[in-house]
Specification:
single chain, mainly beta, Jelly Rolls, 6-stranded antiparallel sheet, 22 strands, about 0% helix, about 60% strand, elongated
Length: about 290
């Protein structure tokens, strides 16, 4: 029999592991071990030793199994008023704030427990030199819709040389994040930002100056290399956001057993009449598996 008890002597090792053992051979000792130390004979000769666990069984309701959806389009902004463009430079950065409450393509269902991001898309083309590198960063959003720079979720690099050359039309550039941004709360908004430290503009992107009717979203602009951000609820980048969500299945009833007592039989002598029978109540009722 082996069990763990909370630390009683302020031992740095923490909880205490106690083990009692008998070989099952009449006349062998009942031994005691503490925290994996050497076995000590507790009773020199034992002829019978048996433990019988008493248990009570109850029916309990447990949450259903989590189920992940397939990839869906959460939100998209492709039409609006005041379409214009701007270049990402070492001082002027762009971005977008998106909250699940504003998902305009596939809203989160009412029983959702979390959501994740698979792909972020935005309109882009070269800004003239084809040597730039843009860092797309994804942050958790603050309550006022700005990037929480202490909560970077993921980042990826966009090479300007891969983008179409002006005057070619802006392409929808998609950046995958499969498996790296998961477990987001249904109440957690995110921000993605387009930044560079290059000497030349790293790409050109498109946005709408608005006004736009897309609640719980907004365009981000920084004119001081991210030291501060302004968020506009009426303007927005042309973007798309794909991901998945997790819901719980229907609650289920399961049978659970809890140990209530241990019946102990022990005979330390060779006379059958010397056997001792007793029971011990288990106050905390640990959960057990009943065969």
């Amino acid at each position: 029999m082996e069990f763990t008890v909370p630390d009683r002597g302020h031992d740095p090792a923490g909880d205490e592991l106690i083990r009692y053992a008998w070989s099952g051979t009449p006349g062998d000792p009942l031994t005691y071990e503490y925290n994996g130390g050497a076995a000590v004979d507790l009773i020199p000769e034992v002829f019978e030793f048996n433990l019988a666990y008493g248990a009570t069984t109850v029916m309990e309701e447990v949450p259903g199994e989590p189920t992940e959806s397939g990839q869906v389009l959460f939100a998209i902004l492709t039409t609006g008023t005041g379409l214009t463009s701007g270049s990402v430079t070492s001082s002027r950065w762009y971005g977008e704030y998106i909250h699940p409450a504003g998902f305009n393509s596939t809203p989160l269902p009412g029983d959702v427990v979390s959501w994740s991001i698979d792909v972020i898309g935005f309109r882009a083309r070269q800004s003239g030199y084809a040597v730039g590198h843009t860092l797309l960063r994804v942050y958790a959003a603050t309550p006022d819709g700005k990037p929480d720079t202490t909560a970077l979720l993921a980042e990826a690099t966009v090479n300007e040389s891969d983008l179409p050359v002006p005057p070619a039309y802006f392409t929808l550039w998609s950046v995958p994040f499969h498996g790296s941004i998961i477990g987001l709360s249904p109440d957690q908004g995110i921000c993605f930002t387009l930044t560079t430290e290059d000497a030349y503009p790293s790409l050109e992107t498109q946005y709408y100056t608005g006004p736009l009717a897309m609640p719980d979203c907004g365009m981000l602009v920084s004119t001081d290399a991210g030291a501060s951000w302004a968020v506009s609820a009426t303007a927005g980048l042309r973007f798309s956001l794909y991901g998945k969500y997790v819901t719980l299945g229907e609650p289920q009833e399961v049978s659970s057993s809890y140990s209530t007592n241990i019946h102990i039989s022990l005979r330390a002598g060779d006379r059958p009449g010397s056997r001792v029978d007793t029971s011990v109540t288990i106050p905390n009722g640990p959960k057990v598996t009943v065969p």
